[in-house]
Amino acid sequence: MAPGDNKVAANTIEFPQFDILSGDSAHSDHYFIHSNKSKKAQGCFNDSTSAVSKKIAKEWKILEKDLPDSIYVRVYEQRIDLLRAVIIGAAGTPYHDGLFFLDIVLPSDYPNQPPKVYYHAHGLRLNPNLYSNGTVCLSLIHTWTGRGVELWTPAKSTILQLLVSIQGLVLNSKPYFNEPGREVGLYSKAERWTKKSMAYNEEVFILSCKTMQYNLRKASKGFESFVVEHFRARGDFILAAIRAYINGDATVGQYQECVSASLSSVPVSSKFKANLEKMHLDLRSAFHGIDTSPPKMKKLPLEGMREEKEATSDAVKSRSSAEESKQGISSRILKVLKKIFE
Questions:
Q1: Strand pairing category for 99-105 and 116-119
Q2: Using 50, 70 and 90 to split pLDDT, how confident is the model at 6?
Q3: Which of 141, 41, 34, 30 is nearest to 75 (CA)?
Q4: Cα-Cα-Cα-Cα dihedral sign, residues 4, 7, 12, 17
Q5: How many angstroms separate the Cα of 64 from the Cα of each of 91, 101, 188, 283, 330?
């Protein structure tokens, strides 16, 4: 992928955005695995006629249909109260190309109360709203103050809204201003605010790179192949971005918009440069540990020197496989819905 390509890499990955996993081992590493163990709670989730089960089935349909390209979700047939999601860091932010995993549990009186969310922080705090212990600070889930539409509304709020809020409001281009008391700086023209925001983005980018390393070492269950495919597709781009930041060719997060080196050099502190050099070395080693060639059954039609007939055949097979996978997910959800509404 060319350095100036700003498209979401996830679009090239053959991995369903929404899927239902079966078996107890599928959710064995979920943070909230020991939640909702009371008989009352289990009754709500195991009874297909309960209001909670019906609501969850509807939520599944919304997620299957409306997830943006950069968010992937897994739910569990044996534990419908649990979900796991990954958000791909957006272009134009210091989180670009990073993977941010969230474990979610629904309360037994859902949707009267909001879900609980755990962020896989690996001990790193790369956002004012995401604590190193995994706490997600957000008005929507009542972990921060808010009013009106900022708070969870049982009749309107959804899991999709929660995920999109974290992506757009938390993992944004200027996270420094997420901290209460700094909001005034977001609209100020004072240079000191700009400098503080840029310095924070530099710190955040390094932490995002460290998070990439953690994800590569041990991917969350249900997303093992996704992590490999993602960094196989984006590895070269990430390394090129780091090199551009080292050379002062772009500010953090803006490399996606650069086709060539910037005409004006961006100041790079010695500390940030040293951290970037280390990250470049560490990530290059980690990415090279991945089989950088696409899997044989997933090669794109024009890769290599294959004949046009063979390329066309592979493309048809790939498309057919993807359609079958999507139909399989839909049929499983329809079965759940049919069982609930019988």
A1: antiparallel
A2: very low
A3: 30
A4: positive
A5: 24, 18, 40, 33, 8
Question: Are 186 and 177 spatial neighbours (Cβ–Cβ below 8 Å)?
Answer: yes
Angle between helices 224-247 and 191-217 (to 10 degrees): 140
Segment 126-175, tens digit of pLDDT? 999 999 999 999 999 999 887 778 899 999 999 999 999 999 999 999 99
Task: List the catalytic residue out of 44, 137, 209, 258.
Answer: 137
Token pair recorded at residue 227: 């992590």
**Residue 209 annotated to the active site:** no
How many other CB atoms sit within 10 Å of the CB of residue 255?
Answer: 24
Q: Of 77, 142, 147, which Cα lies nearest the Cα of 115? A: 142
User: In this structure, are residues 195 and 185 in contact, taking their beta carbons and an 8 Å threshold?
Assistant: no
Consecutive H or E run containing 83: strand 82-88
300 vs 311: CA distance, rounded Å:
8
> Three-state SS across 195-206?
HHHHHHHHHHHH
Which ranges in the chain belong to alpha helices (H)? Answer: 39-46, 51-66, 159-165, 183-186, 191-217, 224-247, 270-288, 308-341
pTM: 0.82
Q: How many helices (H) and strands (E) does the chain have?
A: 8, 5
